[in-house]
Design brief:
Number of helices: 7
Structural class: mainly alpha
Largest sheet: none
Strand content: under 5%
């Protein structure tokens, strides 16, 4: 189930393992769940694949602050501060309020 996948994703040793879990999640229909999307985004970020992280963000519900926070953090961890600032500016133009996690990620 999705809880098992959420537990296993952070301990993937290789990106290929993460991609296999991602493929399973697609077949099982878990990608509509925000916690799973954020876990996948974090996994791809850990392996330096920001492009996949951004694609997953695009698939998610933009009204969820945790997806925004994950995307901002991903860019900061990848030394893309300018992009992170741009994303934060975009967030501020929406009706979504940044939370303490948004602020702490800086």
């Amino acid at each position: 189930n999705h809880v098992t996948l959420l537990t296993v994703l952070p301990v993937c040793y290789t990106q290929m393992q993460g991609k296999l879990l991602h493929a399973y999640a697609v077949r099982a229909g878990f990608l509509s769940e925000t916690p799973f999307l954020t876990a996948l985004m974090l996994m791809y970020t850990r392996f330096g694949d920001i492009k996949s992280c951004c694609l997953l963000f695009q698939m998610g519900e933009k009204s969820n602050i945790s997806l925004w926070n994950t995307l901002i953090s991903a860019h900061l961890e990848s030394n893309n501060a300018d992009v992170a600032v741009s994303i934060f500016s975009e967030l501020c133009k929406t009706d979504i309020e940044p939370d303490y996690v948004t602020i702490l990620s800086w």
